[in-house]
Design a protein that fits this description.
Helices cover 53% and strands 1% of the residues. By secondary structure, the chain is mainly alpha-helical. The chain has 20 helices and two strands. Strands 1-2 form a two-stranded antiparallel ribbon.
């Protein structure tokens, strides 16, 4: 029904205002009242309240809802977000009561009211689609962000953490947890100056690498027979190499050098030291007591032993220094016995590898095979220890294994250990054959867990090619 002037007082048509304008000379303003216009109060009431017309949309209200939506994104649903589905979700935000709809009424033009937008009935579906892209873009961006966060979390999981291997010893005063890292940092610095040159045998005219291997293989059996500490064996080998690097020796005296070096190592490491007569017996009485004591002095003088020992051990060493030959050896080695051997690093690195007894015995089997071989002198003690544990892990588990914790505490990556590890595999393959089988026989007993009978990690040799 068309409206009348009486029912719509004060309403001026915008179109008539533009067409008629003001009369010249301040004449009375004449406005044409359209028959299809509604009162401004009715329109405002319809816009502010629940919109009764599908064609009228409050732009400010929609903007506020969109802002709230941006602040508090809805939880993504499992249904794929399509334009049609997004439009349905958007329409649910604006529910239009059916009883307030009046098909005959039309919304005002955009030029009449700034807060009103005309949407025809035919364009209602397009209007819904118009708001869909913003919703879709926001949802897709939110899903991409969730995927990115999941990728970051997966990357964090893939990074293997470095374990605190000293946490269980914090209450153990003997473990010196506060200083252990500084100690091994100092060991790493000192190892290069406490090892013999890798080509010292070129200075010897009467002995060679093979004779050295025979001597050490025999001393390993002597060490096993006397049930000496592990530290004693590694220190003995170190004393032999350092002495031979500084003093020419004839082959007839080479065994005497080995016996004397072990006697000195026992004085430094053992609580109960074998007597000189015991070493004379195991050497098949090839040397006299006087010769042994003379050589003890020579080695001790060479390594400056007395400079580092306490008064009690120093007194016991002086008791042996009765002969001039004995003094010669200790002077040649400059009295220095406090050096980091491979055993020092083995204990620390095995702890980092969280090794069980079987893996520990297999690691010591690997490194004792290296003691016999002259060519391993080119590797520093810390690298030998790390490579022995790495090779033992590969042998025990059947695949390459080197954890982040091991790499952190050893300072060696898996790639840096490959060369030495391949040598160890070769030594393992040939341990039971040839003449130097002392280490293989030792680790073929139940006391050492039959470690020598483990199959070598041949795949480490294949990886080279």
């Amino acid at each position: 029904m068309a409206g009348s002037d009486e029912n719509n007082p004060g309403v001026i048509g915008h179109r008539n205002l533009q067409e008629e304008g003001f009369r010249a000379g301040g004449g009375k303003l004449v406005s044409g009242i359209g028959h299809n216009r509604r009162a401004l109060s009715s329109i405002n009431r319809n816009i502010i309240g629940a919109p009764p017309y599908p064609c009228a949309v409050n732009k400010n209200a929609f903007s506020e809802k969109q802002a709230d939506f941006n602040k508090k994104p809805s939880i993504p649903v499992h249904r794929p977000i399509t334009r049609k589905f997004a439009a349905e979700l958007s329409n649910k935000q604006q529910v239009i009561p059916e009883e307030t709809k009046k098909p005959g009424q039309l919304a005002p033009k955009p030029s009449e009211f700034e807060d009103c937008t005309i949407i025809d009935a035919e364009d209602e579906e397009e209007s819904s689609d118009f708001s869909a892209p913003m919703f879709v873009q926001h949802t897709e961006a939110m899903l991409e962000e969730i995927d990115r966060m999941e990728e970051v979390e997966m990357e964090d999981i893939d990074d293997e953490p470095v374990f605190d291997i000293d946490s269980c010893d914090k209450k153990n005063s003997l473990a010196v947890v506060e200083y252990i890292d500084d100690l091994y940092t100092n060991y790493k610095k000192a190892e290069s100056s406490s090892c013999a040159s890798s080509n010292y045998m070129s200075q010897q005219s009467d002995i060679n690498e093979r004779m050295r291997g025979i001597l050490i293989d025999w001393l390993i059996e002597v060490h096993y027979k006397f049930e000496l500490m592990d530290e004693t064996l590694y220190l003995t080998v170190n004393l032999i190499d350092r002495f031979l690097a500084a003093q020419p020796v004839v082959r007839k005296k080479l065994q005497l050098v080995g016996v004397t070096a072990m006697l000195l190592a026992c004085k430094y490491e053992e609580v109960s030291v074998p007597v000189v007569e015991d070493f004379i017996v195991i050497s098949d009485k090839a040397y006299s007591r006087k010769e042994v004591l003379e050589m003890v002095y020579i080695i001790t003088k060479s390594i400056y032993l007395l400079h580092f020992l306490n008064d009690i051990i120093r007194f016991r060493i002086y008791d042996l220094l009765a002969c001039l030959q004995e003094k010669l050896m200790i002077n040649t080695l400059q009295f220095n016995l406090s050096i980091p051997t491979p055993y020092v690093f083995m204990r620390r690195f095995l702890k980092a590898a969280q090794a069980d007894k079987k893996l520990e015995l297999l690691s010591f089997f690997m490194i004792e095979l290296c003691l016999v071989e002259y060519e391993t002198l080119k590797f520093p003690p810390s690298l030998l220890a790390a490579a022995a544990i790495y090779t033992a892990q590969c042998t025990h588990y059947g695949f390459k294994q080197w954890s982040t914790t091991c790499e952190w505490h050893t300072s060696y990556s898996e790639e840096q250990l490959q060369e030495c590890s391949r040598l160890m595999v070769n030594f393992h393959q040939n341990a039971g054959s040839g003449k130097l089988t002392g280490v293989h026989r030792k680790y073929s007993t139940s006391k050492y867990g039959y470690a020598a009978k483990t199959d070598p990690a041949n795949f480490l040799l294949e990886a080279r090619y």
